[in-house]
Design a protein that fits this description.
mainly beta; Methylamine Dehydrogenase, Chain H; four-stranded antiparallel β-sheet
Length: 359
């Protein structure tokens, strides 16, 4: 079932869901909230405007509640404390590095991929930077995620490999079995393995910490699997892109779900273009994704509702987090890296009858 909510001039309908625990936010962090806690969002957008030329791409939330994001246009890593209005950016030492995905590591540092720089970067909460060159030249690292083994795993889109880097910087690469498969995104699964999308090969793959690989062919050709995340239901959820992406014409426009034993279910999106970008679990345990000027919510049975971000917006990365930490506090925000409007935006989730301030 597909529905739309909150077009211009209309107030989106609130949505409630029982929240027992939310796992997987901020690349492997676990936040627990009291059982029977009910959260709702009215779809109102709150935002912090960034300096011109920032170009936020993806976002994650650190254990102390700070929002970290990559600035693709500015070639920087950004940090925001939304309620205090404190923003700081950290320039990368090499021009044109093209920072893409950012994730929280087991060591409490932020780890990110440099797509054009062919490096994996690490930045401490205090802003100290270190970069690690990849063994394979021009590999185009994109996705990065914390694995159950405490290492950071990343995809090498051009080199057709999945890589692993330890907190100390030791790097291992695993070639994929399907040639030119284009690993575009990856995420840790509830089974302790890393799951990835093979964009060019039309497959979802799984790699164990030992490097054993299994791939699952999608039911329809040219589906263009993109971003992937672990759902609250114990399955992996992923986007199927649409249009011309990375030189390949794909015809996705769907949200996919794959169980741990490889069973695949697909749900049609109400809006097929522009292509969806990023997917994550929200504070309400539903799946959320960014697409053009809106974000969309997917319930476990596949009902999709769209919420507008505003004119000129183009949401990319998104991540759930709390307005305050430490872990244990209610996870009540869904942050969006809005590259089109050059801002960090978020939706707030409150108990029924609760209120939230915002811009």
């Amino acid at each position: 079932m597909i529905s739309r909510a909150g077009r211009a001039g209309r107030r989106p309908a609130a949505w409630a869901v029982v929240l027992v625990s939310v796992a997987g936010f901020a690349a492997g962090q676990r936040f627990l909230v009291p059982q029977e806690t009910v959260l709702v969002t009215d779809g109102r957008v709150h935002a912090f405007d960034l300096p011109p030329g920032s170009g936020p791409v993806t976002v994650t939330v650190a254990p102390d509640g700070a929002v970290w994001f990559t600035e693709g246009q500015g070639n920087r890593i950004g940090r925001l404390r939304p309620d205090a209005g404190e923003y700081r950016s950290f320039p990368l030492p090499n021009a044109g590095s093209a920072p893409r995905i950012i994730a929280v590591g087991a060591d409490g540092n932020l780890w990110f991929s440099e797509h054009s720089g062919n490096r994996i970067g690490r930045i401490t909460p205090q802003g100290e930077l270190r970069e690690f060159d990849l063994p394979t030249a021009d590999s185009q690292p994109r996705a990065i995620a914390l694995g159950a083994d405490g290492n950071l795993w990343f995809g090498e889109f051009a080199a057709n490999r999945i890589g692993c880097i330890t907190p100390e910087g030791g790097i291992t690469e695993f070639p994929l079995p399907t040639p030119d498969s284009g690993p575009r995104a990856l995420a840790a699964g509830p089974d302790g393995n890393i799951w990835y999308s093979a964009f060019r090969a039309n497959r979802i793959g799984r790699i164990t910490p030992r490097g054993e690989i299994t791939e699952f062919l999608l039911p329809r050709p040219n589906s263009g699997p993109g971003d992937i995340t672990a759902g609250a239901d114990g399955a992996m959820w992923f986007l199927m892109l649409s249009g011309t992406m990375d030189g390949l014409q794909v015809d996705g426009g769907r949200v996919g779900r794959i169980s741990m034993d490889g069973r695949i279910t697909e749900f049609e999106m109400p809006t097929r273009t522009p292509s969806p970008i990023n997917i994550a679990v929200g504070p309400d345990r539903n799946i959320w994704y960014t697409q053009g000027s809106h974000v969309a919510r997917v319930t476990p049975d596949g009902r999709i509702t769209e919420f507008p971000l505003g004119e000129g917006s183009r949401g990319a990365g998104l991540s759930a987090g709390s307005d305050r930490q430490p872990p244990g506090r209610l996870v009540n925000r869904l942050y969006v890296a809005d590259g089109g409007a050059n801002r960090i935006a978020w939706l707030e989730f409150t108990p029924p009858g609760g209120t939230s301030g915002g811009q």
